[in-house]
Structure formats: C-alpha cells, structure tokens
Design goal:
The chain has about 325 residues and is α/β, with parallel strands linked by helices. Helices cover about 35% and strands about 30% of the residues. The protein contains 9 helices and 14 strands. It has helices at about 15-25, 40-50, 60-65, 80-90, 105-115, 130-140, 175-190, 285-295, 305-320, and strands spanning about 5-10, 30-35, 55, 70-75, 95, 120-125, 150-160, 200-205, 210-220, 225-230, 230-245, 245-250, 265-270, 270-275. The strands form 2 sheets. An 8-stranded mixed sheet has the order 8-9-10-7-11-12-13-14, covered by helices on one side. It has a 6-stranded parallel sheet with strand order 3-2-1-4-5-6, sandwiched between helices. Helix 1 (about 15-25) packs across helix 8 and helix 6 packs across helix 7. The chain is globular and about 60 Å long. The relative contact order is 0.16.
Length: about 325
C-alpha cells in the first residue's frame, strides 16, 4: 500500500460532498482519488474540489479499481451492510456511515468479514475522535465529578417539511433513532465505558412508518440515563454528566462548530466553573486520520465495530421497549 491511503467514495451524497470529501482532502496520509456516480452533475461538484478525481459510473466499477485502498460509504441506511461486505470482498478497507446496520445482529457478518479478510472496517461515528469527547471521558472516568449519578443526552432537529428525505422514508431505513440515536447513546457509552443493564421506559412516536420522537430511560451499573431524540422538534444538542461532586456539560457535542461552539463546562464545589472550548477541531478530518493510522500502523481505533454494535444493541432495546411500527 502506498503511504497515503487512496480513498474512493461510493455515491455522490450531499453529506459526502459537504463534509467527508473535504475531510479526506485535508487529512494527513489520505488522498481522495475516485468517486462512483452515474450522475455527471453530481460528480462535477466533487471534481471541482478534487480535480484529479476519477469518476466511475457504478459502485462495482469503483470497487474493481486496483488504485483504491479504502472506500467511504454514505449510501442510505438499508444499503450499508451489503455494500460494506462487497467492498471488503473486493479488498478495500471500509468506513461506512452510521448506522452500519438496522439491528445489532447484522453487525456480526461484517465483523466476520473484517476478520476473514484482514481488512479494516469501521462505522463513521465521528464524535469519538473529537477532543471534546476525549477530554470528557478523561474527566468523568478520572473522578472530576465524583461518583457518576446520571447522564442526560439530547439531540433534536425538525425536518418535517423534507418529506423526500431518506430519514423520513421507512424503505431507506429512516427514523430518528437510526439517524441520531447513535449519538445520544454512543456518547454515554464512550465517555463512561459502561453498558446498559436495562431500558426502564421508552416512548416512541411514529409518522409514516418512521420514528420521529423517542424519549427513554435506562439503568447503567451505578448510574441512570435519560435520552431524547426527535426529528420534529427545534434544534437542540447537549450531553450532561452529573456526579455527586460536580457536573460536566457538553455544548454542541454532535455537530461541532456548526450547531454551536464545541465546548465543555465543568462545575464543582463552591461555585467553581471551568470551560474548555474547541474552536478549530474537525472531527471528520480526525476520523480519517485515525482510520489511516489504524490501517497503516495498527493503532487502536477509538470505536471498532464491536463498539458500534453495542450502540445498536441499545437502540434495539429501546425499540423493543417502546414498540416498533
């Protein structure tokens, strides 16, 4: 393999154009060399920012290109597992958008393919690469707020008018829990290092076969948890870790420096309050760089497939408690 990982993108999704293609171009040790798209207009946008880009007319053609080491897959949710498996069998490392799968047990075949091929595959769960979350984990697990008592996690936005959006369509694996449940759940698991014992309560509201609102409570060993996700509420992003000696609040934990400034605030006894801000960190770039270090050097990855499977397992538990449509 060349020193720089040569990336191809499977599909000309808006998110790939706006976030991941620029991230690959900015990341150290990465080179964006190919795109699979049958739409010349969509491909032209990518070529404008990556003039040397090779455009393949099909996904299979891109996977057959020997000049590509790794692929990024931003396809609709229901296609993630199949194309991840095809990419691994074609000899490519894979970074696939979240959720990789719609149920936890579907991860098992991908994990098996990863192990069989000796290639690397990961879900594009970018927040764990951001220094805000690395610092939060250090503080919580280091006892900065004392014994952890409770975690609150909230992520909402309103896309009610976007009826054609894949998030509002059941046939493409839409819904709030698949789209953003991974954030409020994975955030708690990553920072605390703990796994849920049970879902104590879940309320899920549906429209046209997709969940548009979900609130749920869970029991973790030693602390309680409350989560909220919605595609029908005003934008809100926040995670709070409350201990018996302090409180840690993460502002803009999911769309860092887009929704708001990424920051964390630590409050402890006697009114002491400390704030740390992260105005320049780009978690998409950091994700690509960490992926490359894992592929080239075998460095441990912040969220291997086993971690992502655990998040999906908790989402499954919420659906089981609250009821599927």
């Amino acid at each position: 393999m060349t020193e720089a990982i040569r990336w191809g993108i499977l599909g000309a999704a808006n998110f790939a154009y706006e976030q991941m293609a620029p991230a690959i171009l900015l990341a150290r040790g990465a080179d964006l060399v190919a795109l699979a798209s049958s739409d010349p207009a969509k491909a032209a946008r990518f070529q404008a920012i990556a003039p040397r880009l090779t455009v393949h007319g099909s996904y299979d053609a891109l996977l057959a290109d020997p000049g590509i080491d790794a692929v990024y897959i931003p396809l609709p949710n229901h296609l993630h597992v199949d194309w991840t498996l095809k990419a691994l069998e074609a000899g490519k490392h894979v970074l696939v958008e979240k959720p990789l799968a719609m149920r936890a047990d579907a991860f098992d075949q991908v994990i098996a393919a990863r192990d069989r091929t000796g290639l690397f595959a990961a879900e594009a769960y970018m927040i764990v690469h951001h220094p805000q979350f690395l610092r939060a984990r250090e503080l919580v697990q280091g006892g900065a707020i004392g014994r952890l008592v409770h975690v609150d996690a909230r992520f909402t936005y309103n896309n009610a008018e976007a009826t054609d959006n894949i998030r509002n369509r059941p046939e493409t694996g839409g819904g709030g829990l698949p789209d953003i449940g991974v954030y409020v759940i994975g955030a708690a698991r990553f920072v605390t290092g703990a796994e849920p014992a049970a879902i104590d309560f879940a309320e899920i509201r549906y429209e046209n076969g997709v969940d548009v609102f979900a609130r749920f409570d869970a029991s973790f060993p030693g602390f309680s948890y409350s989560g909220l996700v919605s595609m029908r509420a005003f934008s809100r992003q926040e995670v709070v870790f409350q201990g018996d000696e302090g409180l840690l609040r993460l502002t803009c934990p999911f769309n860092a420096n887009v929704h708001d400034m990424a920051a964390l605030t630590l409050e402890t006894g006697s009114g002491r309050r400390e704030e740390e801000r992260f105005p320049t960190a780009n978690h998409y770039v950091l994700q690509v760089e960490n992926f490359g270090r894992t592929v080239r050097e075998g460095v441990a990855y912040p969220c291997p497939l086993e971690f992502s499977r655990g998040t999906q397992a908790m989402i499954d538990m919420v659906f089981d408690k609250g009821g599927r449509p």
